[in-house]
Amino acid sequence: MKDGFLDISKINKLSPEKGSVLISEPFMSDEHFKRSVVYLCEHNEDGSFGFVLNNFLDISLFELVEDIVNEEFKVSFGGPVSPDNLFYVHTLKDELNGSYEVMPGLYTGGKFEDLIPLINTGVITPNEIRFFLGYSGWEAGQLDTELSVSSWIVGKTTVRRVLNTNDKHLWKKILDEMGGKFKMISNFPEDPSLN
User: In whole angstroms, what is the distance from residue 185 CA to residue 158 CA?
Assistant: First the structure.
């Protein structure tokens, strides 16, 4: 977006940190990240990882895990790394041992075996936990390089938004809420040649 368009790196004042979101630039062509919003669970000198929030799969946890009998829990595509593995974010600090806090009130990890009876008996509900197949990851320095060439916009989010498995317009909504030039970016056509 630098040549003749908008240099996102000059208008985006936020730095990535755990608990923030990465919003893809409007013309990103990577099939995994096109118009995506990625929730960052970690960002440090060793690298970064998170989950795509707006790539929904037509599959439930019940279909993936033999021991699950509750059909209410949806699964999303979290990213291209380890796509056969299941990951989750949740609000279950007290119920799930081994989890760690990403932002106030939201955690990741913990023993999956502890989750199974809580899910099957309805003790926890889909608005308390979200499941992903795969994750999005960056090696040390890789994300900073991508930010320097305007591949991503850094934004903020809420626990409720991270746990929402139905918001197909999340990319546009977050940019609209950021206002100014970001709102303009949210209205860019997916294919600029059609303009």
Answer: 22
